[in-house]
Amino acid sequence: MTRIIGLTGGIGSGKTLVAKHLQSLGVPVYIADDEARKLMESKEIIHAVTEAFGNEITRKGKIDREKLSQLVFNSPEKLDKLNNIVHPKVHEHFKAWVEKHKDFPIVVKEAAILFESGSYKDCDAIITVIAPLQIRLQRVVERDNTSPELVLQRMQSQWTDEQRISKSDYVIHNISVKETYKQTEEILNLLTNQ
User: Which of 36, 54, 163, 185 lies deepest, with the highest CB count within 10 Å?
Assistant: First the structure.
């Protein structure tokens, strides 16, 4: 039986670093944000999003991601509406992906909003990646070429580290790459030998 391990953390915490290291160790990793982005290009989702938010949300037959994120960012109702369109599709897609990887003892689902979306309920164990606020802020400002104010706004819309940790089985403190790799390998070893 394949065990599903959830991998989460706030923006700039280093989830991707951990996910890539797990992949390099031979563990299949499902990156929920990437898959959701691809699924949002399907005719079915484009149609549903257009129905929900109007034609001005599309450009050249595709969803204008910038417009859509501006529309839902400060509106919990609109964000819920969008999530109710996208999350069930991601959930179905993930189930099919797990089926394709059923010969692996462990698969990982990496998702920024693992708890907020409720998909943590599908996981057998959860790893949360954390890092000091200043480091996270600096990483995201550099990575996304954005302002610290916008990054802080995004951080405030997510769960806190404390909230995530309280529902997690393992915590990785991502300050140095070498240490993070070591912690990742130790956790993988524990999960493999359970």
Answer: 36
